[in-house]
Amino acid sequence: MSKKKIDECIRDSLNTYFADMAGSEPHGMYEMLLNVVEKPLLDVVMQQADQNQSRAAEWLGLNRNTLRKKLIEHKLLK
Asked: What is the predicted pLDDT for the residue at 78?
């Protein structure tokens, strides 16, 4: 397991994001970050759950219908 925690990775990525903007002001960061984090989260959890939506939904603390909707939104439904 990596010694670097997820929150540290996100913090580092955000600092790089701001540095790359070279003083420009960002817009829509909240939605952008949620989308950037949510898709790989759903993808990895579905892989680990052997594509079992009920199991993945339980692990994520989501209703299965909500998970299914999010999988469709991120084009992860197989």
From this structure: 65
